[in-house]
C-alpha cells in the first residue's frame, strides 16, 4: 500500500531574526508528516532537503500520477527510515518556491512581492525556523535528523545549534563547508541567471516573464557536477542523436545544432527545471550553501566547532562524488572522533557521483536501515 502524503502549512507571526540581521515576520512553512508520533513523542525524525527539493519527502499525492517524494526510496513503510516506527517530518525551507514564504510571496511590510528584496537566509536560519515548527508540533527532542548534500549541512547544524534536542544525526554526501571550486560552480550558475535579460534585477514577476535561459544554464551546470564521469560515459558516451546519426561521421558540423545525446539530455533537464524553479530562490539557496562554515567562528578549527554536538552520528559518502567528496565527510568524522563522539562512517563504492545519495544502492540502504533499527530499539527500550 502506497504512502499517501498530505501537504500542510503553518503560519508564524513571531518575528524571526536572521543571521544577516534582517527580521522576517508573518511567514509560513510548508511541511508534511508521515507515520504516527508515539505517546512520549520520542520517535520523531526530521528530514532536511537539498537545493531543488522540498517538504515532499515521501509517498504520493492522492490522484496524482508520478508524484513520488524525492526520497521515497528511503522513507516509508518498511523502508530504511520506516514510517511504521518513526514519525517523519519534512519541512520546506524559507526562501524556497514550494510553499514556504519566499521571493514569490508578498512582503507584509510593503504589500509587494518580495522578489530580490527577500532577505538572505542561511543554513542556521533554516534550522531555527524548523525548530519553531517542531515546537508547534510538540516535539522537544528528535530521535534523528537526516539529510543529504545541503540537507546534511542542516543536519550537522542542528547538532550544534540545538545539541540537547538531537539524539542522532545522519549526514549524507555532505561537507563541513564548500570548497572554492564548489563556490565557483555556484557563482557561474548565478551569473547565468542574473545576466539573463529577463531577470530584471530580480523583479521579473512585475514584468510577467521568467529568466528561463539563465535557469536552464544554471541547471545544466549543476547537473554536470552531480554526475560522475563514469555514469556520463556509460549513459551517453559520444552517442549521437538519431536525427544526426545517418551520415558517415554522423556530425552536422554545426556550432548550434544539438548533436550528442549528452547535449540533448542536459537541455531537457534545463528546460524542465526552468518550468518549476524560481530564479531568486536559486540565488538564495546557493548562497546559503556558500555561507555554511561552522568552523569559521573558530579560526577554521572544525574540532572546536563541533564540540557542542552531543548526538550519535552516521556519515555516508560515495567514492565517485567529486562535488562532496569522501575526504570532506572524513573531515567531519575526524573532528567528531577528536571530540569523543559516537560516529559510524560508511564510504560506498558507487559509480553515480553526488546523485548516489538519492538512488537505490543495496549497501547504502542497508547501512541506513541498520542504523535506524538501532535507534528504534533504543526508543523502545
From TrEMBL:
> Where in the cell is the protein located?
Cytoplasm
Which domain of life does this protein belong to?
Bacteria
Q: Where is the AB hydrolase-1 domain?
A: 43-359
Question: A single Gene Ontology molecular function, please?
Answer: homoserine O-succinyltransferase activity
Which Pfam families does its entry note? Abhydrolase_1
Q: Which reaction does it catalyse?
A: L-homoserine + succinyl-CoA = O-succinyl-L-homoserine + CoA
Q: Which residues bind substrate?
A: 219, 355
Chain's role: Transfers a succinyl group from succinyl-CoA to L-homoserine, forming succinyl-L-homoserine.
Protein name per UniProt: Homoserine O-succinyltransferase
Give me the gene this protein comes from.
Answer: metXS
Amino acid at each position: 500500500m502506497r504512502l499517501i502524503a498530505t501537504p500542510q502549512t503553518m503560519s508564524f507571526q513571531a518575528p524571526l531574526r536572521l543571521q544577516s540581521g534582517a527580521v522576517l515576520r508573518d511567514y509560513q512553512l510548508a511541511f508534511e508528516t508521515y507515520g504516527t508520533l508515539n505517546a512520549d513523542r520520542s520517535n520523531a525524525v526530521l528530514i532536511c532537503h537539498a537545493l531543488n527539493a522540498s517538504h515532499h519527502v515521501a509517498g504520493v499525492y492522492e490522484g496524482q500520477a508520478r508524484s513520488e517524494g524525492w526520497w521515497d526510496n528511503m522513507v516509508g513503510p518498511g523502508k530504511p527510515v520506516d514510517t511504521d516506527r518513526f514519525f517523519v517530518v519534512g519541512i520546506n525551507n524559507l526562501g524556497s518556491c514550494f510553499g514556504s514564504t519566499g521571493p514569490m510571496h508578498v512582503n507584509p511590510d510593503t504589500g509587494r512581492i518580495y522578489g530580490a528584496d527577500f532577505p538572505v537566509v542561511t543554513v542556521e536560519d533554516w534550522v531555527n525556523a524548523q525548530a519553531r515548527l517542531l515546537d508547534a508540533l510538540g516535539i522537544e527532542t528528535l530521535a534523528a535528523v537526516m539529510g543529504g548534500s545541503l540537507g546534511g549541512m542542516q543536519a550537522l547544524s542542528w547538532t550544534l545549534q540545538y545539541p540537547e534536542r538531537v539524539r542522532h544525526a545522519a549526514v549524507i554526501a555532505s561537507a563541513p563547508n564548500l570548497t572554492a571550486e564548489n563556490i565557483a560552480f555556484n557563482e557561474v550558475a548565478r551569473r547565468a541567471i542574473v545576466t539573463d535579460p529577463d531577470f530584471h534585477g530580480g523583479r521579473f514577476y512585475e514584468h510577467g516573464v521568467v529568466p528561463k535561459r539563465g535557469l536552464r544554464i544554471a541547471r545544466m551546470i549543476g547537473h554536470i557536477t552531480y554526475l560522475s564521469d563514469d555514469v556520463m560515459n556509460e549513459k551517453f558516451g559520444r552517442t549521437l542523436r538519431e536525427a544526426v546519426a545517418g551520415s558517415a561521421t554522423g556530425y552536422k558540423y554545426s556550432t548550434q545544432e544539438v548533436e550528442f545525446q549528452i547535449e540533448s539530455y542536459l537541455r531537457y533537464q534545463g528546460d524542465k527545471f526552468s518550468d518549476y524553479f524560481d530564479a531568486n530562490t536559486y540565488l538564495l539557496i546557493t548562497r546559503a550553501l556558500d555561507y555554511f562554515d561552522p568552523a569559521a567562528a573558530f579560526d577554521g578549527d572544525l574540532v572546536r566547532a563541533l564540540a557542542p554536538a552531543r548526538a550519535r552520528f552516521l556519515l555516508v559518502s560515495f567514492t565517485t562524488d567529486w562535488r562532496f567528496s569522501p575526504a570532506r565527510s572524513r573531515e567531519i568524522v575526524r573532528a567528531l572522533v577528536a571530540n569523543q563522539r559516537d560516529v559510524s562512517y560508511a564510504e560506498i563504492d558507487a559509480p553515480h557521483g553526488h546523485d548516489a545519495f538519492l538512488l537505490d544502492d543495496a549497501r547504502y540502504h542497508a547501512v541506513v536501515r541498520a542504523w535506524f533499527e538501532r535507534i528504534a530499539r533504543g526508543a523502545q527500550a
